[in-house]
Specification:
- By secondary structure, this protein is of the alpha/beta class.
- It has 4 domains: about 50 residues, no CATH class; about 325 residues, Rossmann fold, CATH 3.40.50; about 120 residues, no CATH class; about 120 residues, no CATH class.
- It contains 18 helices and 30 strands.
- It has a 9-stranded mixed β-sheet with strand order 4-25-5-24-23-6-9-11-10, sandwiched between helices. A 6-stranded mixed β-sheet has the order 1-30-29-28-27-26, with helices on both faces. It has a 3-stranded antiparallel β-sheet with strand order 13-19-18.
- β26 and β27 form a beta hairpin.
């Protein structure tokens, strides 16, 4: 029976397996210091398979900085940490599909990777802009500065995870790149094949980000860049910085990302075709930009006994004295054949203008005229336009509106520099899947969670969010601290609570005002499960033999830390077994022992001491995919053997493990 590992999975071992699948002959074995054998790659054999390679001092295009090697290794480094459940900090713990993770986002990404790799449809992040006045994450590897002068004192002696990064720092850009690189590498793994990453940033590190992303995602995967208006006013000795950017990149170049086109604006008129074709807007029928006369587009139009001409074959004098409306230098935009079809099928309207009657054509929101081999026909389909790179230059996406939104929820300015939920809602709306998992691992005030709930309320979607935020302490002089919030996580969770209540209330109020025959809206999931990153659930038993005392050995008979509970263990097992952290968790009383049943019985587990055969048998009869117990659950080695044998008899398909 296998022992369940406490650490995160080895990404390097996964990469070896991938290369081995492509080129089995490049796999070799090396002996570790402890005498065990490990599969790895024979680099020389791999070179033979891929041909000429770029190495050493050979000139080649590349993007690098001091510390890049360490940053890359950090992404692959395994950790022995866990996620601990915090129901008291959650909303609707038992039923919600949303997650709020408190802790370092690098650790969070590593912990999430085994379960959520390839499952996240969209990632949005708003990382530190590195303006010289904000903070960056203090990763352990970045403390090594052999290539630089002595320590500058930038790092927190108390072990804090955020440090200032002033422009005077010799590693100013390098530290930011080293912080972002491992996080982006892991984020790529979490994205689905058709997933998209959006990153908000200003021009301080924009150039470096735009070099980093193609290296990780591929040079052909970039979707575009959206400038966003941050504010309308601003003073500067040079140029006022009134915008930042949103960079978009997709996971895989070969996957076609179908960003939904937007409905054109301006449709406000209604007619007898409203139900089928939707509202319409009016267009000029004359071509004001015609550079030369076109005889085929110069013809008379007769409607209700009146004649209209654009000009060309009639002089202005003749037009006026013959009772004909028109101008001599314009032609029609539609051909005579198309106009006749449009007139017959309701696409043409005559209206009184300031200078007499004028002809207009209609553009319907859900209908258009299409030319077929047999003539023209009316096609019923939404009329849309491609997403514009200037999508977010409207003031509704600015920081001013974000501040109003936050202040409106809290009644006081508890958070600065967040993005408005309208911006993130518009980005999420570009993802066609209404059941998508949306991740934000620089969550801040939880704008992304707010946006997901808003959009679900509007279109009935079932999108799920995962927020990750370091519990950065609020400055004691800040309005947030004065309002009683100790750290950013407390602000983020409270925002979700307040926004969720407001959204649910608005949906319920709307449903009370339904007209006969109208379908009520669904109240979206406004809850979240809070999970906190912590050290391992288990004591460290990796000391050398000579370091153990008899008392220590007795203590390690049960290596679970004193403050840890079965609820902590079940979350750890869920991650190991690739069961989503939002899955239902039931606690069953089986003959006085607590048995966990997770995700509808896919996983059963019992972590009590001295679990009898009767309880093990009951667990086996549930026929789960996975069954897990811990060492202390067994009275002896024979009980461990019984555990395995019982499942062989009652549920041979169950994967049985001990933690």
């Amino acid at each position: 029976m296998e022992k369940l590992s406490h650490t995160t999975e080895s990404i390097l071992d996964e990469n070896v397996e991938k290369l081995a699948a492509l080129f089995p002959e490049v796999v070799t074995e090396v002996r570790e210091p402890d005498g065990t054998l490990r599969h790895t790659i024979d680099v020389d054999a791999l070179k033979e398979r891929v041909g000429d390679v770029a190495e050493g001092q050979r000139e080649r295009y590349q993007f690098t900085w001091p510390g890049k090697r360490e940053a890359k290794q950090e992404a692959y480094r395994q950790i022995d940490k866990c996620l601990r459940p915090c129901p008291e900090k959650s909303v609707n713990w038992d039923t919600t599909q949303n997650l709020y993770i408190e802790g370092d986002n690098l650790d969070a990404l590593k912990l999430l990777r085994n379960t959520y790799a390839g499952k996240v449809k969209m990632i949005y992040i708003d990382p530190p802009y590195n303006t010289g006045h904000d903070f960056i994450y203090d990763d352990d590897f970045s403390k090594t500065k052999e290539d630089y002068d002595a320590e500058s004192g930038d790092y927190d002696e108390e072990g804090g995870r955020l440090v200032a990064n002033p422009e005077s720092n010799g590693r100013f850009h390098s530290d930011w790149c080293s912080m972002m690189y491992p996080r982006l590498l892991l984020a790529r793994d979490l994205l689905s094949e058709d997933g998209i990453l959006f990153v908000s940033l200003d021009d301080s590190e924009l150039a470096n980000l735009c070099k980093m992303l193609p290296e990780m995602f591929g040079p052909d995967n970039r979707l575009g860049m959206f400038p966003r208006v941050t504010k309308k006013a601003g003073k500067s000795s040079d140029i006022a910085q009134n915008n930042d950017y949103i960079v978009a990149i997709k996971k895989k170049a070969s996957i076609q990302v179908n960003l939904p086109a937007h409905v054109d604006a301006g449709f406000s008129n209604a007619d007898e075709y409203l139900n089928e074709r939707g509202p319409y807007k009016l267009n000029q029928t004359l071509d004001y930009n015609s550079l030369q006369y076109n005889e085929s587009m110069d013809y008379q139009i007769n409607i209700a006994g009146e004649t209209f001409v654009p000009g060309g074959s009639f002089s202005a004098y003749e037009a006026r004295h013959n009772g004909v409306h028109g101008r001599t230098d314009w032609v029609w935009r539609w051909s005579k054949e198309l106009f006749s079809f449009g007139l017959e099928n309701g696409f043409v309207v005559v209206r009184e203008g300031r200078n007499g009657k004028r002809i207009y054509t209609k553009t319907y929101q859900n209908a258009s005229i299409d030319r077929s081999p047999h003539g023209y026909r009316v096609v019923i389909q939404p009329r849309t336009r491609a997403v514009s790179s200037l999508e977010f230059v409207d003031n509704k996406y600015s920081n001013d509106n974000s501040k109003k939104e936050i202040d409106g929820l809290f009644g006081t300015p508890v958070f600065d520099y967040s993005k408005p939920s309208e911006l993130i809602k518009s980005l999420v709306n570009l993802i066609p899947d209404k059941n998508a998992v949306i991740l934000d691992f620089f969550s801040g005030s939880a704008t992304t969670a707010h946006a997901v709930m808003r959009l679900n309320a509007e279109d009935g979607g079932n999108r799920k969010f995962i927020m990750v935020q370091l519990p950065e302490v609020c400055d004691e002089k800040s309005e947030a601290a004065k309002a009683g919030y100790k750290n950013i996580c407390e602000i983020g969770r409270e925002r979700i609570r307040r926004a969720g209540k407001k959204i649910a209330s608005e949906v319920e109020e709307s449903n009370r005002q339904l007209k006969l025959g109208e379908e009520p809206k669904k109240v979206p999931d406004v809850g979240f499960r809070t999970l906190k990153i912590d050290s391992s659930n288990f004591e460290d038993v990796s000391a050398e033999p000579e370091e153990y005392t008899q008392q220590a050995i007795v203590g390690f008979a049960d290596n679970l830390k004193p403050d840890r509970t079965p609820d902590d263990l079940i979350i750890q097992v869920m991650l190991k077994k690739q069961i989503e952290l939002s899955a239902p968790i039931e606690k069953l009383d089986v003959d006085g022992y607590t048995v966990f049943s997770v995700d509808g019985g896919r996983l059963v587990a019992c972590f009590d001491r001295g679990v009898p055969v009767k309880v093990m048998t009951a667990m086996a009869k549930m026929e789960p995919d996975y069954a897990v117990m811990r060492d202390a659950s067994f009275a002896g080695d024979d009980a461990v053997s019984n555990f395995a044998e019982i499942f062989k008899n009652y549920s041979s398909i169950t994967e049985v493990e001990v933690i």
